[in-house]
Amino acid sequence: MSTSSPKLLSISSEWNFELLEAFDRELARIAKDFGLDTYPNQIEIITSEQMMDAYSSIGMPLNYNHWSFGKQFVETEQNYSRGRMGLAYEIVINSDPCIAYLMEENTLCMQALVIAHACYGHNSFFKGNYLFRTWTDASAIIDYLLFAKNYIRECEERHGVEEVEAILDSCHALMNYGVNRYKRPRPLTAAEERERQRSREAYMQQHLNELWNTIPKKEGPADAQQARYPVEPEENILYFIEKNAPLLESWQRELIRIVRKLAQYFYPQKQTQVMNEGWACFWHHTLLHQLYDEGRVDDGFMMEFLHSHSSVIYQPPFDHPHFSGINPYTLGYHMMQDIRRICENPTDEDREWFPQLAGSDWQASLDYAMRNFKDESFIQQYLSPKLIRDLKLFNIHDDAGLPVLKVKAIHNETGYQRIRETLAGQYNLGNREPNIQVYNVNIRGDRSLTLRHYMHNKQPLSSSSKEVLKHLHRLWGFDVRLESILPDGTVTKRYECPPSAELLEVICP
Amino acid sequence: MSYIIDRRLNAKKKSTVNRQRFLRRYKQHIKEAVDQAINDRSITDLERGGKVSIPRKDISEPIFHHGPGGITDRVYPGNREFAEGDEFKRPEQGGGGGSGQGKASNQGEGEDEFTFNISQDEFLDFMFEDLELPNLIRKELKDATSFETRRAGFSSHGSPDKLHIVRSLKAAYARRIALSGNRRDDIRALRKEIWALEKEAVTDDTTERLQALRAALLELEKSVKKLPFIDDFDLRYQNLVRLPIPSSKAVMICVMDVSGSMTQSIKDMAKRFFILLYLFLQRNYKQIELVFVRHHTLAKEVDEQEFFYSRETGGTIVSGALSLTADIIKSRYSPSEWNIYVAQASDGDNWDGDSSLCGDLLREKLLPLVQYFAYVEITTGPHQNLWYEYEGIKDQFSEQFAMQQITQPGDIYPVFRKLFEKRTEVNS
């Protein structure tokens, strides 16, 4: 006689396709009850070898060919075969339908965990979060990649692999500077343009005063007042090059565009790592517990699940040999749980810090948080004193000008605010990556391109910048300069490619 | 709405193209590693791939990021001892104060080398490229052995065309016996009882009992019959295994001049020549023995390490080495059992009076015994007396004798050309 109750989905740890379907059906039902809105799922079972392939094509099911992906593959293969790293249990792709890769080696429990995590957690995040809604088109990405792969292959046939590779290398070097951070206004239609022009003319006509024309104009130094091009600094460097580089051929511009589009596609993921993983962990935890409460899985299943879950959200302390920064899974998961706790069982402290959350409906509040924030603002808004205490967070102030490091804040009354702000700032992409923008092109002279690095907290650029500049030079085709400037406008360092003798790294007083 | 798709049987090796591009891009580095490996390894040890290391800075993909310096404010977890306002000295780089965010591989500095493996095929490819081997030959050399399929008992898995009917039916029979054992015993017992009863006088009691027993018997026989006649489990297939075709044995005798005029670079070139011959022989023979004979004025049999890497000085007398070779063949490798290959490398120097002696030795003692004798002269200078002596032999024994002057690795291959041609003639 088997002791299992008929409600149990399975008592074995081996998975098969019927069981996966059963688990998926149950999880879908529960997720729907919790109000998760998802794309349809496409769950694909793959081998570890295929997982390594997926790793090395930035997780996408198909991608164009490039040596750097080969390098990634070689490295992954080496580490994996030496046992130095394990592979991820899953990869999930922001597409419609949402593609999730499951490894065949996983046990049934792991597969259920992964389905809950990826197919309902990440999936609903992709569909709901404002950054993904603004910047990515989930239904088009696979088709676009197919187009990109074929286009680049055709270019290789026509212009040679080396030519194409050189352009792609240069684009990859600038990939982080190929994204739009803000939506551009839609270009005006011809009719609107005409209408504008008419009204401008009418306005000018109204204010025309012949008398002013008789006053002589002041003669200024002509070149000092020369208008810059572009008029406003441009932060999307690849976009600027694609549109303005003088010597590029049209296929080269198209390659830049492809890299730019991919960078834009991954832009939301970089900014929502904590939230995305936190959301997915919160939901796999909640969904599987619900499954357990309903009696569909047994204790053994839950033990295995909790073991995996707790190793995923483990945060080693700062002095641990395995410490490598704050684990986004830990931070995100705890913040999500914390929001639920504040909604359901608020303390006085929570009422003071989160008056709008305390006592509200947790599902609605959590949903709101998921939809409308990115890591930076999410932490700024929702990191609670309790969590700061639980994780024992502290803030180290490192000023290269001083011989000592200073502990600016710890998990106490006076430190909460500062820790929250600093941690949020740590996830601000604008602080993490140097702020470099296209400043000027000498359009009447040697066509040289000048970039400006607006320094944040006096942080200098790393030594690899010179190499990046070479890539920029390849794309632009004429001299390229880069200036690091302080907020008060003084230039601290100049880079130039090709280097000219006198300007080579002059440090201005 | 979910679809579950099994992708495990999809095309593997999606990354092959990217990997090849990576290898092509760093060809120079890999070639150096292969060269190094050739010099380090023994001739017989080319059966595996190799490890290639490239300094990480050479393959890094640069991006703009912050360098050290300026003001950074970071949050760390797991505070134990710090209080607000504490100050302490900056830890050494790589300690707890290292940057938390970002993957270390992006930082580039202070990282070890980027190390990866190339397969044996790739290893040989890079080596052959150096030697300028034609593609067809490269392929032949890489396919080390040929196989034949032989029967090896029976297995429970296989394709239907390998089904062995008698064995399968035997197994089915055995299964039926095994599975019905208890019931057969019961049947036998019942039958006995029925017979016993039938012999007794007919009363109401016995008829009733007989009827009950017969019904039970019928029931049991029915259940025995329900056992399937044949089951998947019973099927037996002929098991076939692939065995390498045993070919006869070969011995390769390497003869090299180690007099003072042979520099290490000449020896390295000679080593490539010997490696190529070894690979070629390996393709054709299952068992190959290597014998190393080195000589200056005296000839001596040595091991591989000493052969390539110990330095001697002095004059050169080739005939000693040739007669030692002949002695070794006579005492240990009878031509009826062994295919004998001799490869000689030298810079062409020989003591004047010795060359004609060498010619005689070759003609009378060696060439009648050996399959092939290859001589390479590694020099850029004019030919010396040994070359002219050997040229005479070449005309006489064109089937067995090849000689070539080598100034760079690409020149080695022509020596083997004739050998390969001969092979294909025999094969076709």
TrEMBL record, chain B:
Residues 59-78, 86-111 are annotated as: Disordered. Signal peptide: none annotated. InterPro entries: UPF0229, vWFA_dom_sf. HAMAP family: UPF0229. Belongs to the UPF0229 family. This is UPF0229 protein D791_01361. It comes from Nitrincola nitratireducens.
